[in-house]
Amino acid sequence: MHHRRRLIYAALAGVVVAVLAASVLAASWQPAYSGLGGRLSGPRVPAPEQGSVRYEIRPGDNIADIMLRFGVPAAAVLQAARPDYDLARIRSGRELTIGYQHGQPHAVSLTYPIDEDSQLVVRWDADGGWVSSVDRVQYDERVVTRHFTIESSLWNASIDAGLRPIDIVRLAEIFQWDIDFNTELRKGDGFSLVADGLYLEGELRKLGDIHAVKLVVGGGDLVAIRHAGSDGGESFYDPDGKARRKPFLRSPLAFSRVSSGFNPSGRLHPVTGKKRPHYGTDFAAPTGTPIRAVGDGVVSFAATSGGYGKLVRIEHATGHQSGYAHMSAILVRKGQRVKQGQTIGKVGSTGLSTGPHCHYELKHGGRHIDPMKAKLPVSVPLSASDRAAFAHERDAWLPVLERASQAPE
Ligand SMILES: [Zn+2]
């Protein structure tokens, strides 16, 4: 049998974990602006009588200098903006828009993008002087499709397809009950997707709702179609209306790599050197990486336990028990009820351990099972009241998804 080449996720794991920190994602947002630009040295730009100019902020730029150059009364505008946003905090790479009006001796508006969804607008009002507000960015929305095949890594393939790291995390989340994204994807696997594209000035800036996704993995297809339930939350379903969400996540770490698999017949223990069965799966990840509860349940153990180091065990209503060892920090108490995906601790190297990893084990009826291979309970189907609406969405999006998956890349 052809042995499929494994992807080089090991090298990527660190990058991926860093990318996963949502706060980092938010903070690192940079619009793909292609600005008018221009250096701040040189003479003042003659302001147009009407219309607007755009200026891409350069490293080292000073807001007051920019305003002077473009005929914006700096002191008054900075003061008007201050309750909403401190313009001294402008970031290079973003773009200011400065508006002019016939008959006015100075600029009449200044716009700065604060983040993806909001912008600061300071406007000249002939009656009241400068007035500041934070406005929602108005995107143009149109359906986009993407199709890509993994050549070297999921990240490269999706970035080549014009997606951002946050979009890839969203795709991974849709299939997190089915696939461990770092160990189960291979070269040749791929995605097709249909989503709302949010455009600004003709450029795709981000994805809105994802309507339908197909993941081709190991020659098989997993399809997910979005449906917003009557409770307002969105979920993804297979074409038969079975939720992609299942009682158990595939793995306790969102992105990581398996460093040692389930092996009940024995392996040489890396610390003791003795041959002992390995009743779990080890996921290598940097110290501090969040560990997630794989399913809803009640914490039955949360303390230090010999070679396990800092250990958490959770009892699940399905008769399963999950265990998470070698933590650097435990974030739950015995008796506490936890939700699937909730962070219960952090990766560490406590107990008998050679380096930071999470030893994850799963028992059913008191017996150890292989968490990566075990047949786990399946999801409940859509309620009767949601089925008709779902069928309508499925019949609308599946043909679009099918066309997308046959399009050249
Ligand atoms: Zn282990």
Structure write-up:
This protein is of the alpha+beta class and 409 residues long. It has 3 domains: 51-136, Nuclear Transport Factor 2, Chain: A, CATH 3.10.450; 140-246, Nuclear Transport Factor 2, Chain: A (Roll); 257-369, Distorted Sandwich (Glucose Permease (Domain IIA)), CATH 2.70.70. It contains 7 helices and 23 strands. It has helices at residues 9-20, 22-27, 63-69, 74-81, 154-160, 165-174, 384-406; strands at 51-56, 95-100, 109-113, 118-125, 129-136, 140-149, 190-200, 203-217, 220-228, 234-237, 257-260, 263-268, 275-278, 281-284, 290-292, 297-304, 310-315, 320-327, 329-330, 337-338, 343-346, 357-364, 367-369. The strands form 5 sheets. Strands 11, 14, 16, 17, 18, 20, 22 and 23 form an 8-stranded antiparallel sheet that branches. A 5-stranded antiparallel sheet has the order 1-2-3-4-5, covered by helices on one side. The protein is globular. Mean pLDDT is 83; it is low at 1-43. Zinc ion (ZN) binds at residues 260, 278, 280, 282, 359.
Task: Describe the secondary structure blueprint for this structure.
Elements: H1 9-20, H2 22-27, E1 51-56, H3 63-69, H4 74-81, E2 95-100, E3 109-113, E4 118-125, E5 129-136, E6 140-149, H5 154-160, H6 165-174, E7 190-200, E8 203-217, E9 220-228, E10 234-237, E11 257-260, E12 263-268, E13 275-278, E14 281-284, E15 290-292, E16 297-304, E17 310-315, E18 320-327, E19 329-330, E20 337-338, E21 343-346, E22 357-364, E23 367-369, H7 384-406
Antiparallel strand pairs: 1-2, 2-3, 3-4, 4-5, 6-7, 7-8, 8-9, 9-10, 11-14, 12-13, 14-22, 15-21, 16-17, 16-20, 17-18, 18-22, 19-21, 22-23
The protein binds zinc ion.
